[in-house]
Specification:
single chain; 10-stranded mixed sheet; about 20% helix
Length: about 270
């Protein structure tokens, strides 16, 4: 939490804890004077209208123009709910919330640069390429590094890592503790989650789903609406497509082709 937000919270708490109208008025005036005199990167914070709403009601959970605000556990500050009609305070609260929670920025080369240390990433570390902030969540320990690319409407979140020369494109999602690396490609509406690993020159596309502790590597391809999960593995030049499922401790490898509604499970090998 930034010192600015901490100071604001302390002053508001003093107002809410006031036991008399005189003390409440004094504390509110103190807050008002501080707020009007503070500048954050040249922006005056003298229009925090939400203060008046929840101070008047003496409640901890704020209310803005009759609409409850959601409380952010990350910053311990209110964040307007979708559809909040307050045009005065909402943009300011959203800006403060976003500035405080950002963990990276995008440099002129299109690479993400860490603004704070998290997991194994140090502040100042230069990561991989992303087209926009929608490609990489500011929450969690997710990261894109090396020469990896994340573009389009694709998104990396949770504790997922994309690195090496991997590419995540389209509307693909990589989340959980998943790893995508090497020269692997995840595209379309594909999902890679859990503790799944996709690497080598493997491709996961379409509406395919790779999850659990599954591994897809080599030159393997998983496409269509196929699912690979559990502790299953697909490698070599194997292909899993259609609505096929590979699960359990099953392995599909070599030049095997699993398609249609086929199911490979247990300890089977194909």
């Amino acid at each position: 939490m930034t010192p600015l937000l901490e100071k604001h919270i302390r002053l508001v708490e003093k107002v809410n804890k006031a036991t008399t109208e005189a003390e409440r008025g004094k504390r509110y005036l103190e807050l008002r004077i501080w707020r009007e005199g503070v500048e954050d990167a040249g922006r005056k914070l003298d229009l925090m209208a939400c203060d008046r709403h929840y101070i008047d009601q003496g409640i901890d959970r704020p209310m803005c123009c009759g609409v409850w605000l959601d409380w952010s556990p990350l910053t311990d500050m209110p964040l307007p709910l979708p559809g909040d009609p307050c045009s005065t305070c909402s943009p300011l609260l959203v800006r403060l919330y976003n500035e405080d929670m950002k963990k990276y920025e995008i440099n002129k080369d299109g690479r993400c640069v860490a603004l704070k240390s998290f997991s194994d990433v140090k502040a100042g570390a230069i990561g991989g390429f992303i087209e926009s902030e929608k490609n990489l969540s500011h929450e969690g320990d997710c990261w894109v590094s090396g020469n990896a690319w994340v573009s389009g409407d694709a998104r990396v979140s949770g504790k997922a890592m994309v690195f090496g020369d991997a590419q995540v494109t389209g509307k693909a999602r990589v989340y959980g503790k998943a790893r995508v690396y090497g020269k692997a490609e995840v595209s379309g509406d594909a999902r890679v989650s859990g503790n799944a690993w996709v690497y080598g020159k493997a491709e996961v596309s379409g509406n395919a789903d790779v999850s659990g502790d599954a591994m897809v590597y080599g030159n393997a391809e998983v496409s269509g609406k196929a699912r690979v999960y559990g502790k299953a593995g697909v490698y070599g030049k194997a292909e899993v497509s259609g609505k096929a499922e590979v699960s359990g401790n099953a392995w599909v490898y070599g030049k095997a082709d699993v398609y249609g509604d086929a199911e490979v499970s247990g300890k089977a090998e194909v």
